[in-house]
Amino acid sequence: MRKASFPGGVHPPENKLTSHISIKEFPIPDEVVIPLQQHIGAPNQPLVKKGDRVFTGTLIGKSEKYISSPIFSSITGVVEDIGNYPHPVLKRAPAIRIRREGEDELDPVIKPPSHPEELTPEELRRIVWEKGIVGMGGAAFPTHVKLSPPPEKKIDTLIINGAECEPYLTCDERLMIERGEEIVRGVEIIVKILSPKRVIIAIEDNKPEAIEKMRKCVEGKGNFEVKELKTKYPQGGEKQLIKALLNREVPSGGLPFDVGVLVQNVGTCLAIFEAVYKGKPLYERVVTVSGQVENPGNYKVRLGTAVRKVIEWTGGWRENGDLVIFGGPMMGIAQSSLDVPVIKGTTGILFLQSEKWVEYPCVRCGRCVDVCPVRLIPTQIMKAVKFGNIELLKEYHVLDCIECGSCAYICPAQIPLVQYIKVGKEILRRKK
Amino acid sequence: MKEIKLKIAPAPFIHSPLSIPRLMYGVILCLLPALFWGIYYFKIQALYLILACVFGTLFTEFLFCKVRGKELTLKDGSALLTGILLAMVLPPYLPLWMGFLGGVVAIALGKEVFGGLGYNIFNPALVGRAFLMASFPQHLTTWKIARGGFLHYDTITQATPLAQTLPKFGGKINYPLVKLLMGTHAGCLGEVPALLLIIGGLALLVFRLADYRIPLSCISTVAFLTGIFYLKGLSPSPLFHLLSGGLLLGAFFMATDPVTTPYTPKGRWIFGIGMGVLVTSVRLFGGYPEGVMFSILVMNAFTPLINRLTKPLPLGVKK
């Protein structure tokens, strides 16, 4: 069978150093810093004040806005402070600092529902919202919103994204191998909400163990199938995945539901399962810690744990590292502080050595055009940005860029094309 | 725990091993077999001519960097490559000062006046050759081969295979293809050994130093068109056309110059086909025996237009 793939893309060294390392649980930190905003959408308002006692799983912040996702305490202790703290995406943002005190205790209000099978789609969506579930693949878009497409948009295919195309990252791979059954039960909850005709679990072919495990898990489930994807970056991009598996193109500026598709990450499915069957709010997640650390691995981490602690628990930094990246090496974010906390969308923490690139003028070799999975012309966008030419920016569709970094990765002139594109998008947004 | 100074950088944090110098030196490596053959076959004079051309290009690049107060760009390999390519498309026994002058013009008028690396419209080496062709037509169309030792030898004037064979010059000889493959005939310094050029050209494609589309479409177009005329008895065989003149060097090494050829995949097909049509037309109907240089320069001029017309429609964008 031909493996599904999309046109373009690159194949960086996979560096999946932690594929065969089982998920281990980190100790509970003495202190956590939980940002009020960990998702795409409206920020939460704090529901606690300094000095309040909280349990693990206690709701500590929420918003009345629909596109938002509540946050929970990840340890049992006392609220120390509410203020501005380092944030992995927003640099600094309001957060609640909690100091550990006493035994780790789950909030007594958390109870599994008595008959989870009998819940209606509406009730299930409500649970997904109330338990703070967001896209765990990194984007952190509130899942209840994704599960509520407009009624005229019928979802016929549900794609479960287990591609994990970023180098180094292996948390999804381990989750599929170790918790495949629960992931499939999570998928069944989504199926109940949206009743798609087909469910495709898509995994890159560099994860044979995960593919085998998921195949076993969906045996006997009629409309479920596991599909192998060619290992190529950015195979796990939502639009690339849809193109690869269904040969449908999500319209420019549109969303997957415009072509009848919903894509969910495997980690999100597990979180949905735990929320519905165990009543568990999202206060911890599995993070791949890799690169120049003594003990790389896949660790279950309480949200709000500082990178500093992660380094300590993984045996310290091997010499020469100077980059701390949240996410993968292609699309991740470099951190300026060791105090940034793990948040809902943190897929990996990488400790790498920065490399010095020498930038040359563009020689118009067209490699960026060859690899662009969106069929853009990055070099022309760069020129449009340099000239500040708005017409040209529109003509070259800068807003369609998914910022996957393939062009910058391949560029022999080592031009930071993604940076130019980000500036180009900003120019257009300001003009509006 | 020791504190570490963290660096901030934009994603991606990893990069392919590709770089501009690697690209340039990679192409030079692929040219070496044919270049060495040229030196061996045309003797020490060929080496002198290469040095004269390279000295011309490097010297001019150096001057422009100094005058502009820019950092020296000699190390990126681009001027070196231009010099080597220029020498390869010149008659081996050209006076050395002409080679030097060609190198100066290639860099000055071919590249630097447009703003340096990445901004020129025409292939610099071919600009240098076109200049020499216009200034010293006699010298640029006199072909010789050498007999004797490497340092001491006699030269004999000999027509190129194309001039001997094309019907428009009254040629009817069935030229031995083995001679073309081996490169034992008169011609430009680096254009004669077809086999070595094919090996170098394939290496260029295998190591992804150039895109396959232009060489493939150009060579197939020439083969197809000359094939038609061959069947009508109006042309030497397509194989003769592919192996003779500057087609292989041009298609593999000059029409793949990134700067002066299209960056869109579709555009590269068009460039190659256009070049093939022009080469065939000049060879069969033009006044010159060979048309590779003109074809590439003409297609270079069309490149911006081709790029515009072949702009791909982004994923999910409707017409």
Radius of gyration of chain A: 21 Å
CATH class of the domain at 116-278 in chain A: Alpha Beta
Helix content of chain B: 55-70%
The Rg value of chain B, from CA coordinates, equals 21 Å
Proportion of beta-strand residues of chain B: under 5%
Helix and strand arrangement:
The complex is a heterodimer of chains A (432) and B (319).
Chain A: E1 23-25, E2 31-35, E3 45-46, E4 53-54, E5 59-62, E6 71-72, E7 77-87, E8 91-100, H1 121-130, H2 143-146, E9 157-162, H3 171-194, E10 198-204, H4 208-217, E11 224-229, H5 238-246, E12 261-265, H6 266-278, E13 284-291, E14 297-302, H7 307-313, E15 323-326, E16 333-334, E17 348-352, H8 367-371, H9 378-387, H10 390-395, H11 406-410, H12 417-431
Parallel strand pairs in A: 1-14, 9-10, 9-12, 10-11, 13-17
Antiparallel strand pairs in A: 2-8, 3-5, 4-7, 5-6, 7-8, 13-14, 15-16, 15-17
Helix pairs in contact in A: 1-3, 3-4, 3-6, 9-12
Chain B: H1 20-42, H2 44-68, H3 78-88, H4 96-108, H5 124-135, H6 137-140, E1 144-148, E2 153-157, H7 161-165, H8 177-182, H9 194-206, H10 213-231, H11 238-243, H12 247-254, H13 265-285, H14 292-309
Antiparallel strand pairs in B: 1-2
Helix pairs in contact in B: 1-2, 1-3, 1-9, 2-3, 2-4, 3-4, 3-5, 4-5, 5-14, 9-12, 10-12, 10-13, 13-14
Task: Give a quick precis of the structure.
By secondary structure, chain A is an alpha/beta fold. Chain A is 27% helix and 20% strand.
Q: Which keywords apply here?
A:
heterodimer; A: 432 residues; alpha/beta; Rossmann fold; 6-stranded mixed β-sheet; 4-stranded antiparallel β-sheet; 17 strands; B: 319 residues; mainly alpha; 2 domains; two-stranded antiparallel ribbon; globular
Overview of the structural elements:
The complex is a heterodimer of chains A (432) and B (319). Chain A has 432 residues and is an alpha/beta fold. Among the domains of chain A are: 116-278, NADH-ubiquinone oxidoreductase 51kDa subunit (Rossmann fold, 3-Layer(aba) Sandwich), CATH 3.40.50; 367-431, no CATH class. Chain A has helices at 121-130, 143-146, 171-194, 208-217, 238-246, 266-278, 307-313, 367-371, 378-387, 390-395, 406-410, 417-431; strands at 23-25, 31-35, 45-46, 53-54, 59-62, 71-72, 77-87, 91-100, 157-162, 198-204, 224-229, 261-265, 284-291, 297-302, 323-326, 333-334, 348-352. In chain A, the strands form 4 sheets. A 6-stranded mixed β-sheet of chain A has the order 1-14-13-17-15-16. In chain A, helix 1 runs antiparallel to helix 3 (171-194), helix 3 runs parallel beside helix 4 and helix 3 packs across helix 6. The longest helix of chain A has 24 residues, at 171-194. The model of chain A has no long low-confidence stretch (mean pLDDT 94). Chain B is mostly helical and 319 residues long. Chain B has 14 helices and 2 strands; from the N terminus they run ααααααββαααααααα. Chain B has helices at 20-42, 44-68, 78-88, 96-108, 124-135, 137-140, 161-165, 177-182, 194-206, 213-231, 238-243, 247-254, 265-285, 292-309, and strands spanning 144-148, 153-157. The model of chain B has no long low-confidence stretch (mean pLDDT 94). Chain B folds into 2 domains: 21-139, no CATH class; 160-309, no CATH class. In chain B, helix 2 packs antiparallel against helix 3 (78-88) and helix 10 runs antiparallel to helix 12. The relative contact order of chain B is 0.11. At the A-B interface, helix 7, strand 15, strand 16, helix 8 and helix 11 of A face helix 1 of B.
